[in-house]
Amino acid sequence: MMRRTMKSPKIAVVLAALGAAGLGASVPWMAPAVHAATPPKLTIADDVKTAIAQMEKSLRAERISFRARTLRVYPGANGQPLHIVHSMNITVRRPDRMRVDMTGDDGSVKMFYDGKTVTMLGVEANKYATATVPGTIQGMLEAVSENLDIDFPLADFLISEPNKSVLLGVTSGKEVGTAVIDGVPCRHLLLTQPPGVEIELWVEKNDQSLPRRLIITYRTMSGHPSMVAELSDWNLSAQTSDADFTFQPPKDATLIDPKPATTGTQVKPKGARP
Fold this sequence. Notes:
single chain; 274 residues; mainly beta; outer membrane lipoprotein receptor (LolB), chain A; 38% strand; globular
């Protein structure tokens, strides 16, 4: 399972070296589940469970592509919350291929995963980093998060069991209404995860139940920061070739060390999910 944490907003070292904050800026989209001595009573409505189960069935397709636009928080010079926008094209071929083409306020990053290695290219800086990773999409994402301190905010939609991932740590869930997103009626779901995390998820009101919007609000953090994602252009039978996931260095590109540098204090583990 992917890791969830309430880390301080920051730019991952390896992506800063590539010339862009990219995938690693801001808080990830869920906090760690809190295990109290007496577990709280779960009040997740059946229609919410059904919608998320339908979503998982769709997202486990072998070949997927979609677009995403995210709005996330990062700290300004005086600690004030500022916002950063990224647009991504994401392509997945299960079990061991993934590509991300991203542009944002801080530059452009391309990520290639070919089943053995993951490579990230800072387009404007023409620098890239490569690391050996496990042979599954979930294993790759976990390794990148664990070893390079880079979080991918939509990872829970891409791993092997999105249903369990989305509901991990959630104690209550209900459908609060219907909204039309890009002409598609969507269920508006509200999930709560102690301590103080609110998860709003809009999924299509049909058998596919594809996610179309996600908003996470951290009520216990100063300024109540949030992460907003808009998802569109879903294709559950995307046509791809091995070349789409294979990195070819651009002319005069510079290879950098993918390991985050340390300055006296080790990056602490962000918590783990079984």
